[in-house]
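TEACHING EXERCISE
Course module: macromolecular assemblies
Task: Read the component lines below, then compare them to the predicted structure of the full complex.
Student: A.B.
Group: 4
Components provided:
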Amino acid sequence: MNEPQLRKLLEQVRTGRTTVAAALKKLGHLPFESLDFATVDHHRSLRCGFPEVIYCPGKTTPQVLAIAGKLLARKGNLLATRAEPALYRAFKKKYPKAKYEKLARAITVRQVRARPSTHTVAIVSAGTSDLPVAEEARVTAEIMDQRTQTFYDVGVAGIHRLLAHAEALREAKVVVVVAGMEGALASVVGGLVEVPVVAVPTSVGYGASFGGLAPLLTMLNSCAAGVSVVNIDNGFAGGYIAARINRLAEG
Amino acid sequence: MNEPQLRKLLEQVRTGRTTVAAALKKLGHLPFESLDFATVDHHRSLRCGFPEVIYCPGKTTPQVLAIAGKLLARKGNLLATRAEPALYRAFKKKYPKAKYEKLARAITVRQVRARPSTHTVAIVSAGTSDLPVAEEARVTAEIMDQRTQTFYDVGVAGIHRLLAHAEALREAKVVVVVAGMEGALASVVGGLVEVPVVAVPTSVGYGASFGGLAPLLTMLNSCAAGVSVVNIDNGFAGGYIAARINRLAEG
Amino acid sequence: MNEPQLRKLLEQVRTGRTTVAAALKKLGHLPFESLDFATVDHHRSLRCGFPEVIYCPGKTTPQVLAIAGKLLARKGNLLATRAEPALYRAFKKKYPKAKYEKLARAITVRQVRARPSTHTVAIVSAGTSDLPVAEEARVTAEIMDQRTQTFYDVGVAGIHRLLAHAEALREAKVVVVVAGMEGALASVVGGLVEVPVVAVPTSVGYGASFGGLAPLLTMLNSCAAGVSVVNIDNGFAGGYIAARINRLAEG
Amino acid sequence: MNEPQLRKLLEQVRTGRTTVAAALKKLGHLPFESLDFATVDHHRSLRCGFPEVIYCPGKTTPQVLAIAGKLLARKGNLLATRAEPALYRAFKKKYPKAKYEKLARAITVRQVRARPSTHTVAIVSAGTSDLPVAEEARVTAEIMDQRTQTFYDVGVAGIHRLLAHAEALREAKVVVVVAGMEGALASVVGGLVEVPVVAVPTSVGYGASFGGLAPLLTMLNSCAAGVSVVNIDNGFAGGYIAARINRLAEG
Amino acid sequence: MNEPQLRKLLEQVRTGRTTVAAALKKLGHLPFESLDFATVDHHRSLRCGFPEVIYCPGKTTPQVLAIAGKLLARKGNLLATRAEPALYRAFKKKYPKAKYEKLARAITVRQVRARPSTHTVAIVSAGTSDLPVAEEARVTAEIMDQRTQTFYDVGVAGIHRLLAHAEALREAKVVVVVAGMEGALASVVGGLVEVPVVAVPTSVGYGASFGGLAPLLTMLNSCAAGVSVVNIDNGFAGGYIAARINRLAEG
Amino acid sequence: MNEPQLRKLLEQVRTGRTTVAAALKKLGHLPFESLDFATVDHHRSLRCGFPEVIYCPGKTTPQVLAIAGKLLARKGNLLATRAEPALYRAFKKKYPKAKYEKLARAITVRQVRARPSTHTVAIVSAGTSDLPVAEEARVTAEIMDQRTQTFYDVGVAGIHRLLAHAEALREAKVVVVVAGMEGALASVVGGLVEVPVVAVPTSVGYGASFGGLAPLLTMLNSCAAGVSVVNIDNGFAGGYIAARINRLAEG
Amino acid sequence: MNEPQLRKLLEQVRTGRTTVAAALKKLGHLPFESLDFATVDHHRSLRCGFPEVIYCPGKTTPQVLAIAGKLLARKGNLLATRAEPALYRAFKKKYPKAKYEKLARAITVRQVRARPSTHTVAIVSAGTSDLPVAEEARVTAEIMDQRTQTFYDVGVAGIHRLLAHAEALREAKVVVVVAGMEGALASVVGGLVEVPVVAVPTSVGYGASFGGLAPLLTMLNSCAAGVSVVNIDNGFAGGYIAARINRLAEG
Amino acid sequence: MNEPQLRKLLEQVRTGRTTVAAALKKLGHLPFESLDFATVDHHRSLRCGFPEVIYCPGKTTPQVLAIAGKLLARKGNLLATRAEPALYRAFKKKYPKAKYEKLARAITVRQVRARPSTHTVAIVSAGTSDLPVAEEARVTAEIMDQRTQTFYDVGVAGIHRLLAHAEALREAKVVVVVAGMEGALASVVGGLVEVPVVAVPTSVGYGASFGGLAPLLTMLNSCAAGVSVVNIDNGFAGGYIAARINRLAEG
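Instructor-supplied answer key:
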């Protein structure tokens, strides 16, 4: 809406040709409509269909509890990632509905329960040491009401382990691939399926992994064109994006 | 199918309890069913709904023409990326149907025309210098029969330029964000929409961009959780993944 | 302005208690006031006191000329950075007022002439090879109507060369330090003056400069606390920030 | 050669006890000999309007206390950064006027109180985890007698949170932007204001942040030209430079 | 085996021209013959002549014990690398045959004893601090039934220490070189012998070793052409590859 | 040989108990036996079974021709790598026996012909653009009298292409894997065979390949333990090491 | 304040035309004011015994000629490094005494000839491709009147080539080691001699040399403690430092 | 000595024209003369005038004590670097002559006392936090019988602190500069003196120091040509090289 249009609208209000309500609605389509009269997080909740997640590291327990309190008051579900057991214990005491996904180091609070998705998010991981990240992806997708299926410990050093699941994999609408070491699994999976693959590099590995740089680069350079990548060890992002994609497939 | 099962199946064939055709079909469900009796690329075509793309750099003109010939013989569409004008001229001479997307440096040959998608792939770019990469994404998505809408030159230094399009952006089912310099556009877009965002860093920028490393890291570290990333300057991957996602949304 | 306030304002317009002009002005204070009714660049021009600059690399000559045409139509001054001589010749033909700063590789067009600043932007450079970047900073500051004083070739290997100018340096309100090699000049200058120092690393140097990474890190790690840093070889940013600061000092 | 010695030499010249040639030779040992009549730190204090700050890491508690003692003897204010609580307790015991800014991990001792600045240093931060760095910037600016205003937790993933403060932000004379993750906030703020922006990257983030490298590169590559950058997690530098700039604006 | 061939084979089974056993054998040559009817690790054992190794970091003690249990049930030998003493104590309690190689931090269980190899794997290390990695290589090669000879503490700073062993070194069929610091030992050894050299960089060193990056690059750039490289500190890989090569030499 | 032994030997020569010839032979076993009386390259030829190779870049044509002349005078075979066509033409004029492997950019001169090896060096490459490096490996192995078999264009994006050759691959005694992009092929091959795998990363790829860093790290971090790695694009090293290994297998 | 001015001021004090207080105030602007009576370069010449060298890259031919003119006017010797042949031709025309060291790409002009040093600077290089850098070191040391001895093409892959020269090497008072590839030569030489070793890494090598980073790190991490390092390809620095050291040895 | 010469020598021994002793002496000049009949470390001691130093990290206390025992048996002096206090206490118990340099974390044992050097090694450091490294350099030079003079806390942010010592600095024959943060001190010192400067970067600093990478690159890129560099935090190397150089100056 440019200045002349705005001026015209105001004139119409002034002269009664447009009601205040109609003008309000028109102005409401501006990107900033709710800047002040909605709280920040509620706004995101409306927009993205999921409440803001709490990333726990660097926050004190009281800070986490306070943020959780505000979010839970809105009656949505909650996910707190990278939560240490001690934090969970304090959390559980205050919010008894909280559950702890130990391997994923995630706290979830489910206050509403949607119909689970028809389609499936597949979560594939290379080695046992990648499980915490893979589980974070799974927990994230599930708290977003997506059905998941996991294929763990199917790294490429024994390619037959993966191929044995090829058919099952192809039934998913989106695949999250979690792999450390050299991260080659993402490329191989990317060549087997025709749906989007979200690759999550992990920091698991010997020295020249450089904290996950190796699988990160591997995945970014994947010769299989359907692979996109998120941050190192960021299982949450992997699960979150997969959930967004699967929801689209749901229609 | 394990050994006893395989043995049993063969016994059934031997004794006539199973026909050869049925046995063949059962064996065909194995991951390797078509290893030899399908050519490599045809196989991929069946699997992924799109013929293999030709990445031209490092290939001679005769090599590209030969590969193109094989692919075109199967009557599908073709995309050759990073094609120099000289290569295009040789291509056009041999395959008169070829078209050249100059900015995207892409050759396309359209032999079949599907119904365009209902939903839209939005392609957003930060600056004029990012256009070749953004256009490569657009051309890729379109040859894959996806409808696109472009939002060019809406970098974050003038955030209002982007916000002016927020509503339109939110109508897309997937957004490709192409940005060099610091690549912050991906995060801002990621905060505005609730669909998957595929971020493509470009090598556009001053020295400390380090050939696109800066926007690559920016995008991988995006605080907006719906953002996944592909390789530097890889507009093809951005468009390809977006097409995969949009096709899912199509149902 | 939140929804109730907006509703109230519209009511006042409707009932005539507020004029359209007054309402328009009030709405104009919103961050988005001019999203559509001003062109992008004009908006920036209003906001920052300087028209958008054209960064030439990666743009074709026709693109540069077209953008320049739009910008010049608004009667402000223009700066086109990293312009090759050939580009300048085409530019000059179309816009005869254009001048070329050869060393800085910058085209300037001056259509308005403000009173030059009282205070001075000092521009200090380490070696002869750093001159293109230093000159880009100077040209930028000057087209922004700031007075400049240059101190060239005063690298730290002969510290007395710099110290000889210490008094003059201290009269500036802001100092731009341009240095390649090891970039130590920024720290020494930072220790000599009490005004802000904007450091610009350059890519001048032997192998382990790694394209300017060495002076960049040097400057970021400066033990002199008043030093902030911009991108490698980005003389424009150095001059631009210094001009912003000097303008503040102007009152 | 300190001041009394220099005075004495000149007296000897005046009274003929030393020849001009002999004096010339003695003075020829300059430029560095005449520094003794100011102690190192006092000298800086005179020159820059603020006593040297104590950076605590790597110093023992007795070392910090001893340095503090010398500095406080000159009756100025004192700032000790990155001070652990244990260090503060020892400090407080010896210098009871000391105060501890817990979040900023900073000790301040205020012995003189100047009239606070008219203008404001705005301090903007992206996330809760960035607070320690943002607070270090705030404490630094305030001990330098600058008025500050903070805008915390306004990261770009929810751009409306930032835009809601755009008007207030534009009233500051300088803005410090503190952000980890991808650091995109600096660019967006840089596009909203017309004053200098000092960007402070933080080490907050997932793996591919590489200890703050990601936001550092983001900020250095900012497409918003008014942004300069300091070291990772260096809130002190951010606050210090902002104070220098704001002081200039004060006139 | 392509589809017509497969169809033909099945027809032959059906008509009795081929027995089930023969068909089974033919199908067994497919890469995937045993995907399901052999457990993953057994399969590898068959294929590579050595059971899967347990890499302990990132696995809990119960996980390690469980995996070990499965592997030992197949009556092969076992190697668990990077095992802390505490893990070993739990291991020993459950599997009394286990032995601990303290310096190598490796647990071995020997259930079968093959005839040791005729030829020798030489293991050369540069300094005392490289011993853990060198020992891991030695233990790995030995549990794979290869004879080893060690040459420790023969770094290039005193080249005569190495040369004194040149003749002995030349009798090995493969040499593992373990070196931190600058890793130059690999090149010197590579110039002395005519057999393959497997270089293992270690993270031993001062700051600019960057966790082993320095010797890694050294070894990759070796001017002695017979040198190939494995990951930093990965003594296991060094020993494993050397064992593979030595086994080939065995005939 | 230590001092007393040396003294004893000399005494024996003096007293006639040892002939000069015998003494000479004994001294010849010292590592330094031939330091001066053999030319450098002849020495290497004796030691390693292959004359020194000429690495052409950075050498002038006359330098290459001169070195080649000296080497050819000894009647062995010759390999000149990275030779431009122009260099080859000059070479051919002077040494008519020279042949040019165009794709590999290698000149070979065969003056002696050994019985080719019984066993095979397999050379596997991922994509068409990797061919020059793969061919350099092949040419190197062949001039060293090893039989080779090539498996080109079998990248992991279509894993079936590789698996179709699994049986053939397993017949080789050593496998060279050449791959750019993400380099995952090495891990997959490493999981399929039980012989040593020498991985050669190539610089083929988009931006975040960083000149081959990506596949280099991938290969170093391979979860398949039999993989060792050589320098980026160093097909020569790959072929050379494979030849060394294959020769061992030959017995 | 230059020397005549200082002399004049002292005269005025002596004769009473200036008071001590006034003189003190004028001098109080030191420490840096009194530098003008020496030109920058002349000052360095006095201080370091050698005129400033001209580093040619990034300087235009006229700039080089002008600087050379000023320097030559002082009757000392001159060294211009990294001079292209075209630059030399222009140089020679203007300064006929100039000589060109082709391999070193250096122009020298000798106007004074000192007695050559008694002691020797040894210059050792690894391969033929390292010669330009080694020669730059040699030319630099010689124009500084130091005697040199070169040991070229003695890389560690054939360690005997180096050892054959060990005795000669030990007669030098300082050794410059120039090496690319993996740079191991510096460590081996460092272990052979008891004098300082100055290591110069070169950018010669395959991909993972990363433009000389590999030998740079190798040399910095040298286990031979007498090795210090200069920048990649910086033969000038190597020769210059060696000359400084050798001059000390000269007494 | 080549083969004919060796043969000739043996003939002379045989015929009595050369005595065994003379032959032995001649052969003793070979590089390998003492390979076996001297222990490794004694050899180095003879060659370099100083016993091997013990680098303690990564060695167990018993290992350190054992190595020390062997070294001390030869009656030379000893230096053990990076020794924790606990290690020192065990050391002291066994070798009561041991002294501990606390700040330098070094153990020294002095068994012989040479006449201290006439000339001086200057050791300059930038900040208090750099002291441990500077002290390691000092202790190293002193145990090698070199006279030292320290100039601590003279960083470039207050350049006058350094300049005040310029004259004293110029009396040294070699200068060790120890600096973290941005490491600019090396360049400034390099410009002030005409003797060799050995620069030691330290890991002291904020985030973008990247563990000392910043000052390392600074020093390698120093525009002052007399500066060579050792590893990060390697005060030992700095002191060792300086001692070697100073010893040369001693004549």
